[in-house]
Amino acid sequence: MSTNACLSGIIVIKCYQSFICRRKKVKMNPGKVQPAITRALQNTKELLSPRFARYSIIIALLWIGNCIGAYGMIVWFVEYLNRLEIQEMKLSRIHIINQSFDRAFFNGTIENLEYIGCTFKNSVFEDVKFDSVSFVGSNFTRCTFENIQSLLTDFIDCSFVETIFNKTDLYKYKFSSSTFHQTQLHEDKNQCHVPFKQSSHQETILIDNLISQSALVPGVLLSLPVIKCIGRRYAIVVSLLLCSICVFFIWLVNTRTSTVALQTIFGGLVYFAWNPLEILTTELFPTHLRSSALGISGVGRLGAVLANFVFAEFIDLSKAVPVLFTSLVMTLSGVCALFLPESQDWIM
Fold first, then answer.
1. What pTM was estimated for this model as a whole?
2. Does 107 score more than 60 pLDDT?
């Protein structure tokens, strides 16, 4: 062992011993906790005083609007990509109607098919991966399902007679209004029954989301010279108003590439507003209140919760609701920013 390695080991041991000793000596002093709580309450009261109340309320509204875009619309874009993919798969789905399969052997991947009114007799499904496959009104007689993996696969109004299921993930919830006669279920695959995956190409959606999230870097870097040029207030106004306009272009996108491009632009504009908003949040208040003032940003999480609630409730009805909701909130936030003073030339 080298000398450097020995010295490193000794340093690590000494640091650990010092940490243990300090941990044993340090005790919670209740007398220091109460003044800290009192000081925090006093700062909060001062932030809501007539002198700073207007600034605090407007800053809170700006954070709510920004978080609705950052945690609402950007998340909704991912779901929109997922729905585009499902829609494309439905349009390209192949329908097999009223066909009979006797002593057929199925192996490999069966993808994006719908069997309607088909009959399977003495057929074997072995080492099969079902991907977006539906069996509707089909009958299975003396069939065998062996070592099956299924994703977005269901059996609707099907009949199973003398059929064997062995090592499959075809659980009960995948059979709707189906009947079983002398059917054997030997062994299920030992895995979670909840279908976490909603798509067979989740990795594509994750990559698309990663590309759009990369807009954080240019958005933040570009905001720095713009803040210096036009000031904090107008940087916030411009970015939020551009966000409100940008979301309307979602009606023009109908492909994955255009959706990712729009998501990237929108994300860059949202993150662009983040820097001047954080700067303005602290500069509007005196030094002893700035840490408490920055805590106002936590109110923006209410906007994130509200956005996710609105999107979850209305996404199945129409994409117009999330778009109009986001656009309205960001427009109002941009207008609210005009009522704040510019702190760029203030003497700190």
1. 0.64
2. yes
